[in-house]
Amino acid sequence: MSLSLRFLGTSAARPTVERGVSSLALIREGETLLFDCGEGTQRQMMRYGISFALADIFFTHFHGDHLIGVIGLVRTLALQGREEPLRLWGPRGASRVLRSATHLGVERIGFPIEITDLEPGHMVARNGYSIVTVPVDHRGTLALGYALIEEERRGRFNPDLARDLGIPEGPLWGKLHRGQPVTLDDGRVVDPATLVGPTRSGRRVVISGDTRPNAQLGEAACKADLLVHEATFGDEEATRAAETGHSTAREAAELAAQAGVKRLVLTHFSARYSRDTSELVREARERFPETIAARDGLEVEVPYAADHAPDGAHEATPPTTH
Question: What is the tens place of the pLDDT at every residue in 142-153?
Answer without folding.
Answer: 999 999 999 998
